[in-house]
Specification:
Elements lengths: L1 H14 L2 H9 L3 H4 L11 H7 L9 H18 L2 H8 L3 H4 L11 H7 L9 H17 L2 H8 L4 H4 L11 H7 L9 H17 L2 H9 L3 H4 L11 H7 L9 H17 L2 H9 L3 H4 L11 H7 L9 H18 L2 H7 L4 H4 L11 H11 L5
Helix pairs in contact: 1-2, 5-6, 9-10, 13-14, 17-18
């Protein structure tokens, strides 16, 4: 197909009715075709790589060293990155992982050429980096310079150190003695009692984390800077908060309406009343009183009906007008007794099948999906 398409040229594509026409003629999804073919008749880099004999040649360190010496002028003289890839018999998409159009290597390319690039980042390194400060980092040649000096990948270093000299949260947690202490319900109760003033007095959330010997990143999952617990924190402290959400609950919630939810104190109030986690309740109920699609599917009789190829063919013939006449995608799902979320994996509101749907029918027809 790729060889045929590349022979079409711009005029051949227009004569076929554009890319959509070529796709219909060759019985492939237009979205897939566009990954390989442009409207001007040229193949995309992905298409070129598929047709490039030996295009899967391994990119070596020697190649990287040669590419690094090209510079912007050398890349332009060669005809751009696509031409460099063809010269070296490698996929242009792979080359772009290592080389930029301005002639510089990407961090991935630099790391490949860094001696000892797989050196382990140690706590001692973190302590040294923390002591550098912004001025020390700039004097070393920036983060790239620090990485070269300590023989580690700059991409790995950036997980721990910022250009302003501060450690990232991952770096701070590595240096926090006993930072892996488990967060207990007792801690949550203590934090909840602090309030915003207490958190400020402790030096902010970072100060609370250091004091209680836990990682700040973990603490932030439970406690906010304004002194309130997050919903996860509230759910941890809710007595019996792990009660199972039943279909009866869903029916009751559906009957509440927006006014009933407000009267109960919002979604959090409904969750407390029915002894379920608010985060779990929100998967099923919206603040406006409607059930989410997940909630509707739970209450839909026969919701586990299997989506068949025959259904896909029927849905494809509906078109946008047919879907609208049926009452929208929700109505089509109810009519055919399938979950709306599952239906939406295959059918769009404009009447077209998704890529998954098109590929299902291509397989049935014996064609190769793309």
């Amino acid at each position: 197909m790729l060889q045929t398409w590349t022979g079409l040229g711009h005029e051949g594509i227009e004569a076929a009715g554009g890319l959509d026409g070529v796709a219909r003629r060759d019985n492939v999804p237009t979205a897939a075709l566009k990954h390989y073919l442009r409207a001007d008749g040229r193949l995309t880099p992905r298409g070129e790589d598929r047709l490039n004999p030996g295009g899967k040649a391994k990119i070596t360190d020697a190649m990287l060293q040669t590419w690094k010496t090209l510079g912007l002028a050398g890349i332009k003289a060669a005809g751009g990155l696509d031409a460099v890839a063809r010269q070296n018999n490698v996929p242009v998409t792979a080359l772009r992982n290592y080389l930029r159009a301005d002639g510089s290597l990407t961090p991935l390319g630099e790391d490949r050429l860094t001696p000892g690039r797989k050196a382990k980042i140690t706590v001692a390194m973190l302590q040294t980096w923390k002591a550098l400060g912004q001025a020390g980092i700039e004097a070393a040649g920036g983060l790239n310079g620090v990485a070269r000096r300590d023989k580690i990948p700059v991409t790995a270093l950036k997980n721990y150190l910022r250009a302003d000299g501060s450690l990232t949260q991952i770096g701070e947690d590595r240096l926090n003695p006993g930072g892996k202490t488990k967060i207990t319900d007792a801690m949550l109760r203590t934090w909840k009692a602090l309030g915003q003033a207490g958190i400020k007095a402790a030096g902010g959330l970072d100060g609370v984390a250091k004091r209680d010997d836990v990682p700040t990143a973990a603490l932030r999952k439970y406690l906010r800077a304004n002194g309130r617990l997050s919903q996860r924190g509230e759910d941890r402290l809710a007595p019996g908060g792990k009660a199972r959400i039943t279909d009866d609950m869903l029916r009751t919630w559906k009957a509440l309406g927006q006014a009933g939810i407000k009267a109960a104190g919002g979604l959090d109030g409904v969750a407390r009343r029915d002894n379920v986690p608010a985060t779990a309740l929100r998967h099923y109920l919206r603040a406006d009183g409607r059930l989410s699609q997940l909630g509707e599917d739970r209450l839909t009789p026969g919701r586990k009906a299997k989506i068949t190829d025959a259904m896909l063919q029927t849905w494809k013939t509906l078109g946008q007008a047919g879907i609208e006449a049926a009452g929208g995608l929700d109505a089509v799902a109810r009519r055919d007794k399938v979950p709306i979320m599952a239906l939406k994996n295959y059918l769009r509101a404009d009447g077209s099948l998704t890529q998954i749907g098109e590929n299902r029918l291509l397989r049935k027809a014996g064609a190769q999906p793309m």
